[in-house]
Specification:
single chain, mRNA Triphosphatase Cet1, Chain A, 11-stranded mixed β-sheet, about 35% strand
């Protein structure tokens, strides 16, 4: 990625140590859509004591996620027209590591978000197994969504990108940098945005040093969902007001 050489100046950190130092179970996430050409300046502005996740000598990793939705795109529509009750179901493969997970994210009537993550067979990542459907049905029922909808869930959109993960010098905040962004629909239609990157910060309630650096460089947080925003970009007929500016400017 642009600025990848800048990663070499940081000390490495292993996955177990990263999780132990910054699990961030309670966190605020902020997402920034930035030009890929801006990454060198962003990375150069980070504290020298920032560390970067390294596994097997690699510092950038391929992610492949498959999102499941109903034929009428209920999950998408709940995000596009923000509802108290929402759900998102995906599998995620970590390509270099060779592992996969099923991730179920739900939000109930009181606004609390719950994310369930369980290891998943990589060979089954393009579908929902019987056991996965049972787990998803339980999660839907818990937030007041009809559990029988699980029978309608099918692969709707896949995303691919490469990610670098950074741990701030204070070991409190994390940041991820996603490049080589690609969205692929079930029918093969694809959207590729090589000129963009998505930077996401994860910290406590207060803004992190990474956030303040991004602000100084003129970047502001924005509402973006890899699933919902990507699907809206591929299908102009879908509701898109929530991401209208982003779709018009960055995703054009």
């Amino acid at each position: 990625m642009a600025g990848s050489d800048a990663l070499t100046r940081f000390e490495e950190i292993g996955l177990d140590e990263l999780v132990a130092e910054a699990s961030l179970m309670t966190r605020v996430d902020r997402k920034y859509v930035v030009p890929r050409a801006a990454l060198p300046a962003i990375l150069a502005g980070l504290d020298d004591d920032t560390r970067v996740l390294e596994i097997g000598g690699e510092r950038r990793f391929g992610y492949h996620s498959v999102y499941f939705d109903t034929p009428d795109l209920l999950s998408f529509r709940m995000a596009a027209r923000p509802r108290r009750r929402r759900f998102k179901v995906r599998t995620r493969r970590y390509m270099e590591v060779g592992t996969a997970y099923l991730e179920i994210k739900t939000r109930g009537a009181r606004g609390a978000t719950v994310k369930e993550r369980t290891e998943y067979p990589p060979a089954a990542a393009e579908l929902l197994t019987r056991g996965a459907r049972t787990d998803v049905a339980s999660a839907l029922e818990a937030v007041g969504v009809e559990p029988d909808l699980v029978t309608e869930l099918a692969p709707t959109l896949a995303t691919r990108y490469r990610r670098a993960t950074l741990l701030a010098a204070d070991s409190v905040a994390r940041a991820t940098v996603d490049t080589d962004l690609e969205w692929i629909e079930a029918d093969g239609r694809a959207l590729r945005l090589p000129h963009l990157a998505i930077v996401e910060t994860k910290s406590g309630s207060a803004a992190s040093d990474v956030d303040r650096l991004l602000w100084r460089l003129g970047h502001r947080p924005t509402s973006v969902s890899k699933y919902a925003t990507g699907l809206a970009a591929l299908r102009p007929e879908l509701p898109r007001n929530r991401w209208a500016r982003l779709l018009r400017d960055s995703f054009a």
